[in-house]
Design goal:
199 residues; alpha+beta; Gyrase A, domain 2; four-stranded antiparallel β-sheet; 3 helices; 4 strands; 22% strand; rod-shaped
């Protein structure tokens, strides 16, 4: 006796459709999982690549910062050397000038006068001292005016007092120190002062 399938064909069809839908859903889910996983791997790869780029950039930035620090050290060293060279050049140029200054003061300082303060700022000189009379101070000022390295003497303060029974004139004198130059009329004055000048 042959076996007969008594189930209705619609029920079988519905089961087949359900099976197909389930298979399609599972396939779609697997495909979506694969896509998501691939996207995850792809984004991780991009993030890792970007991280490597950032790390490289940070290393380069640190390298450049070290080079900048070295450049700044070199610049500072250069500025220090230039400053020292300028000081040395200034000292060398002022060496003969200072010799002339002190030599000129020693030659022009008259007897009866001594100095208690000597101050120089640039080409401005301030002297403080004492003299045995106002005439001695006047003589010193005339010598300053006649000198070829000193100009514009200016007597600011003069006080007269008794020091151990002697009359002493305290003074403050300011004048300028310039490059040596021949003053017009100086030769004529020295010639006139010489007895029988020109003979």
């Amino acid at each position: 006796m042959s076996q007969l399938n008594l189930l209705p064909w619609r029920e079988l069809r519905r089961k087949e459709i359900d099976t197909q839908i389930r298979n399609v859903a599972i396939g779609v889910a697997l495909l979506m999982g694969i896509v998501v996983y691939w996207g995850y791997l792809y984004m991780n790869g991009l993030l890792e690549e970007q991280g490597q780029r950032n790390s490289y950039l940070e290393q380069q930035i640190k390298k450049v910062e070290k080079e900048l620090q070295e450049v700044n050290r070199v610049k500072k060293r250069k500025a220090d050397l230039i400053s020292r060279m300028e000081v040395i050049q200034k000292l060398q140029s002022d060496r003969t000038r200072m010799v002339k200054l002190f030599d000129g003061l020693a030659k022009n300082l008259p007897k009866g006068m001594y100095l208690t303060l000597f101050e120089i700022r640039g080409n401005k000189i301030t002297l403080k001292g004492s003299a045995d009379s106002n005439g001695t101070i006047s003589k010193f000022m005339r010598l300053i005016e006649a000198s070829d390295i000193f100009t514009t003497p200016n007597l600011n303060v003069i006080n007269i007092k008794n020091d151990k029974g002697l009359r002493v004139s305290n003074f403050t004198l300011k004048f300028k120190f310039t490059k040596a130059k021949k003053k017009p009329g100086k030769m004529a004055a020295s010639t006139q002062a010489r007895p029988g000048g020109g003979r």
